[in-house]
Amino acid sequence: MAHLAMITAAIFWSSASVVSKATFATVPFIELVFIRFALGATTQWVVAFTTGRARIRPTIALRAIAIGVLEPGIITLIAYWGLTLTTAVHVVVIFALMPIVTVVFARLLISEPLRVPVVVGSLIALAATAFLIGDPRQGAGSFEGDALAMTAMVLASGAALVLRRNAQAHAGSAVSLSALQLTGGAASSGLVMLVSSPVLPFAWLPDADGTTLAALAYIGFIVSGSSMAFYNFAFRRIEAARVSLYVVLITPLGVVLAALLLDEAVSWLDAGLVALIVAGVALPSAIELRQRRARAGSAVA
């Protein structure tokens, strides 16, 4: 179930990157981040209270809010800021490094076992991602933008370890934990929005069309309103490095969704590289399943 949760989260995150294109011309990215987290937090709180899952220990609650200020709050802002200064290709390749960095952090900081299939799968997915988006027509990036993207990726890798520890410490539902983290993310992004915005926030709202509003509702209520809960659910059950490996799926799924929803061209080479990325992500699970069946067969014998 944890692996299915992360696949579902990756699908939602990929769709958000495609749907967000409908808002970029109208909504400043800082306000988009705030709206996304505020609507997501609202959704999670409604679910938590209506299902009786809002109870959480105060120490874990405070930690969840503090984590949320950083991840998803500040980290997302840094990544978006980097995206405005460099190419999307560079940002995606940098974030494809996240599973490898998380493997190293997990080994050094919380003593998670170094699993060779996870490392090999991460390297396969990284190489295929680099080829998939390595179109020279995308243009060169900038040092400042790449540095911001790298900072966001390293922070996200470190935050993954804290998220796993907090998810393991919380015995209750992932919904309440996610609601608190999204609240922290909305608070940090909202503060940045108020401080940095040169005009009154939401000045664009009267002129927003139905497509923009529908895109914001989907990104906020559906994507953010569910993905963080899936994320925390997975963190409680599988290693941080395995969870981060699923993040790499965002790129190939985004290619598929762009082809389906936006009629963007996808070559046979693109399709093959997408399949290779999926294979790299699936490799650790496939090996684990094979080993489990072998042990079961030995036990029966």
Description of the molecule:
By secondary structure, this protein is mostly helical. It has one domain (2-300). It is 78% helix and 0% strand. The chain is built from 12 helices and no strands. It has helices at residues 2-19, 29-50, 58-85, 88-95, 98-109, 116-132, 143-169, 174-196, 210-235, 240-247, 250-262, 268-300. The longest helix has 33 residues, at 268-300. It is globular, with a radius of gyration of 19 Å. The mean pLDDT is 79.
Short account of what is shown:
The protein has 301 residues and is mainly α.
Task: Estimate the global geometry from the Cα principal axes.
Answer: globular
- Work out the strand percent: under 5%
Count of helix runs:
12
- Which structural class best describes the helix and strand composition? mainly alpha
Low-confidence stretches: none
**How many beta-strand segments?**
0
Instruction: Give the distance, in angstroms, between the N- and C-terminal Cα atoms.
Output: 29 Å
What is the H/E order? HHHHHHHHHHHH
